Amino acid sequence: MVLADSSIVVLALPQIYRELDTSVAGVTWVLVSFNLVMALAAVPAAHLARRVGPGRAAAVGLAIFAGAGLACAASAQLSTLIAARCVQALGGAAAVTAVLELLPATVGSERRATTLWATAGATGAALGPAVGGILTQLVSWQSIFLIQVPIALAAAVPILAVARHEAATGVLSTELRQTGRPHLLANLALAMVSAAIAAALFLLVLLLIEGWRLTPIGAAIVVSVMPLSALLGSRLSRLVPSARARAAAGAILVSGGLGGLALLPKAEVALTVPPQVMVGIGLALVLSALTETALAGRAPQAIHGGWTISARHAGVVIGLLALTPIFTSDIAEQRQDAIDAGTAVILDSRVPPLLKIDLAQRIESRLEEEKGRVPTIGSAFDPLPSDPEERSAVVELRDELQEQLNRGATHAFSPSFGLAAVLGLLALIPIGLARRVDL
Amino acid sequence: MSPVLRGRALVSGAIVVAVALMGIYLAAGGSSYAPAKTQDPCKHRPWRNPEGLEQIAEQFSLSALDGAACKLGVSRETLAQALATPEGREHFMQRYGIDDAELARAIRAGLLRAVDDAERAGALSPLLAVPLRQTLRNIPLDQAIELINDAESLLDKAQSFLGPAQGLLEQFLP
User: Fold this and answer.
1) For labelling, which of A121, A139, A172, B19 has a CA lying 20 to 30 Å from the CA of A51?
2) Interface mutation target, options A285, A340, A413, chain B, most CBs of B under 10 Å
3) Interface predicted TM-score (ipTM) of this complex, two decimals
């Protein structure tokens, strides 16, 4: 749940953006703040878990996570929401690193615990947007945070038993041995590929909702292709023992999928499916392979797990901060190009001149109503003229105008998807360099 | 299959799939899926079978917009958006550093080009074109903008201007 939380609000961002009356760049901080604090707090939280005991650290972390979730839901301003997200990330960092120390005792072996933890991370990242979208549409964006409260508290109950045992015996359940420094190359690759994956999720959701005007639930259904493909990727992962091969193949698939999204030849949802399948399979392969590598043979698990959490979330922050200014400026530019192209379509259309002027005024008011968003202009054409010839000319004009807007919206995201693909490919450098250390 | 071969097959498969997807999307026009580019307003655009006063007026307005936009070095579409409202005009003039006199000169030049285009297209008789040019050379800015938005009234006024020759006008306008 904590690892899904870095992406769960992605589909709610457009609604938060409108309700809290902010900008695209401003609302991005709802995501950035959580990931930034996770990146900064994961390793110190892991040290704390070893000092006070993983049971206590996980229980307290989950309680903070739940409390901050309530504060997020109650936020009426962007600043309070961002502050609450920071506190939520602090609790999340404590819980997620401490749990890695507790897992081996629960599942039987350290190796199984690592695999399970890495798979949970990949699945959480991919599943987050779909769950968030469904909740946003069916209830509200606040429900995303409210629903986490009982789940976090329920998860804390069995952990409390461990915490009580730690308090009663004064013995920490963690082993005190310490083996190896953090795996620099694996963590570096994790950061790069996470930047690309964050961009894939964030940009695709914005394209679907803000560009193509899908509802949150519609977008959630579309992006659920990624977690479903990630499940397939997890199965594929078991067939190939070499972590380096899985990491390389995963990074290539993530980049290829992002490259496909950068080259969409039409504004059609179906065309996002093949790239999403690639990103989904790729993220399952690469995230689990790199996380397992970063943890293999190293102890304590909580601290090395903390480094992987830190690397992943730092990557998300870098991806979001690097790409947000690019695509916000591209959106503004493409919106103007689309309006110019639409004006040309209106001026040259076969619609009678007086009707044309009337339509142009109605379209203008639709553009103003949408305040800088890509509008749906269908309603500006209602009611359609009764004369069959005029009607057909108006329908042709409407379709051509919408096509120009779709082209503008889709094209605005292309450079950002392309840059994210490059970030994913850059991960191949540390993966390749790690040849000697059997990545 | 050995673990090493399985690893190689996985990486090769990933490369093939990634290249294939991008190749297919590129071939389907992925690199050029963007809003249509606006045309150069300085290039002559042939008139589209004008029938009746309303359509002649429309083609006239489009030619005038092209001519004025060409003079100002902007697209026809940018100018059309600017002239739609007084606020739009103000914003446009500020953005491009244009004053009233410069805008008036450009719009007059556009209207004169529209008369030339109309004459060339056979939509306006030379008899009507001469007095129209004379009127347009001294027209104030607000009226000039009004005329682009409503060229039909200009042609109507031209009919009234000719007064007794109105019957003949029907022969000049197709």
Assistant:
1) A121
2) A340
3) 0.81
